[in-house]
Design brief:
The protein has about 350 residues and is mainly alpha-helical. Helices cover about 50% and strands about 10% of the residues. It has 15 helices and six strands. The strands form three sheets. A two-stranded antiparallel ribbon has the order 1-2. A hairpin with a 7-residue loop joins β5 (about 300-305) and β6 (about 315).
Length: about 350
C-alpha cells in the first residue's frame, strides 16, 4: 500500500529522530562503571563536588553523562546528603537513579576487643561524617552515660563487641542510641538478675569480663576466671590482675609484669588499689558475659599462667599452692629468656 506523501515525511522524520535519540542515548545505556565505589555527597555539597567525586572513580566522560541526565546539573545536591554505593557495571542511568532516588548505603562498624575508648571513637568517626571530639564530648557527659547505668569512666562498656550498621550521616547522638540499644538488649532482666545474685551490677560484670578477656582467649576458662575475681572482691582482696597494670601503663607488649610495673600509680593498677578499676580495660561481648554469669561457683582466689605456655592457667584456693604454681611459671620464663 502506498503511503501518502505527508505521512511519509512524518514517519521519516520520526525514524530519523528515533535514530538520533538512540545514537545520543547509546553511551548513557551502554557505558558502565569499571569498579565499585562509594560516592559521598557532603552536607554542603554542590554539583561540582558531586561531579568531582564521580570523575575520581569513573572518569570525566562518565561523570558528565550522569550529571547531564540527573536532577543536579546546575542545582543544589545537598538535599541528597549521604553515602551511596555504586556497583561495578552500573550505567549512567542507574547511577543517576541511585543518586537521586536511592537509599543510603549503610556503613558497618565492627567493635572487637578495643583497649582504648579514644581509639574506638577515632575509628568510628573515621567511617562517619562527624568529628571525633563531638562523640568524645558526649561520652564524657554523666547525663549521657547515666541512663545506661554507667559513669563516663565506664563508657567503654557501652560498646558491646558486635557489628553495627550506621548511615554515614548519623550523628554522635544517633550512634550512642544504637550502641546503647544493643547494650540494653544484652542487659535484659535475666542477665541483670544473675548479676545481682553475684552481688554485681551490669557495669561491674562488664569490667570483670573485660579483665577476663585480657587474661585468656580460652573460652573454657573464662567463667572460672570471672568467678575467681568476684571471689576476691567478696573477700575484700585486691584483684592483682596483670592486664590492669598493662592497661594502666598503656603498654600491652609487657609479657612479664615486674615489681617496677606494680609501683605505677593509677586507679587501674589493681595491685595498688582494691576493688574494681574505674571502668573496663577493653570492650567485651555477650559470650564472655554469659560465660561468667552462667559459670559454676568455685572457691579459687589465685591463678597463674601454666608453665607450658598453653594460654591456660593453674588455679588455687590457698597461697601455698599458688606460690608453687608461680614458681614453676617463673622458672619457665627464665628458661625461655623472657624478661
Amino acid at each position: 500500500m502506498r503511503v501518502p506523501g505527508r505521512m511519509f515525511y512524518i514517519l521519516s522524520g520520526l525514524a530519523i529522530a528515533l535514530a538520533l535519540l538512540l545514537v545520543w542515548g547509546f553511551p548513557y545505556v551502554m557505558s558502565h562503571t569499571t569498579q565499585e565505589a562509594i560516592i559521598r555527597i557532603p552536607k554542603n555539597g554542590d554539583s561540582r563536588t558531586l561531579n568531582d567525586s564521580l570523575s575520581k572513580y569513573f572518569g570525566e566522560k562518565f561523570a558528565g553523562r550522569v550529571m547531564t541526565i540527573s536532577r543536579f546539573p546546575d542545582g543544589d545536591v545537598s538535599r541528597r546528603y549521604g553515602s551511596y554505593l555504586i556497583p561495578k557495571g552500573s550505567n549512567p542511568v542507574s547511577v543517576m537513579r541511585r543518586l537521586t532516588h536511592g537509599g543510603q548505603t549503610p556503613v558497618t562498624v565492627t567493635v572487637n576487643g578495643f583497649r582504648s575508648l579514644d581509639n574506638l571513637i577515632d575509628r568510628i568517626s573515621a567511617k562517619l561524617d562527624f568529628d571525633a571530639d563531638s562523640l568524645r564530648t558526649l561520652l564524657r557527659d554523666p547525663e549521657v552515660t547515666a541512663p545506661f547505668g554507667l559513669t563516663p569512666a565506664q563508657a567503654l562498656a557501652l560498646f558491646v563487641d558486635d557489628s553495627y550498621e550506621f548511615y554515614w550521616t548519623s550523628s554522635p547522638s544517633e550512634v550512642i542510641k544504637k550502641i546503647g540499644d544493643n547494650y540494653r538488649n544484652l542487659w535484659n532482666n535475666e542477665r541483670t538478675r544473675r548479676a545481682a545474685s553475684l552481688g554485681m551490677t551490669p557495669a561491674d560484670i562488664m569490667t570483670v569480663a573485660s579483665i577476663t578477656d585480657e587474661e585468656t582467649n580460652v573460652s573454657a576458662e573464662k567463667g572460672t576466671i570471672g568467678r575467681l575475681y568476684i571471689n576476691r572482691l567478696k573477700k575484700g582482696m585486691k584483684l592483682q590482675s596483670d592486664p590492669t597494670v598493662r592497661f594502666a601503663l598503656n603498654d600491652f607488649t609487657i609479657r612479664r609484669v615486674k615489681g617496677e610495673h606494680l609501683k605505677f600509680d593509677s586507679p587501674y593498677n589493681t595491685y595498688r588499689y582494691a576493688g574494681l578499676p574505674p571502668g573496663p580495660i577493653r570492650t567485651t561481648g555477650k559470650k564472655t558475659v554469659d560465660l561468667i554469669l552462667q559459670s559454676e561457683p568455685n572457691d579459687y582466689i589465685f591463678m597463674c599462667a601454666k608453665e607450658d605456655f598453653s594460654g591456660t592457667h593453674n588455679f588455687a584456693t590457698d597461697y601455698e599452692q599458688h606460690r608453687e604454681n608461680a614458681r614453676k611459671y617463673q622458672k619457665a620464663l627464665d628458661e625461655r629468656g623472657i624478661k
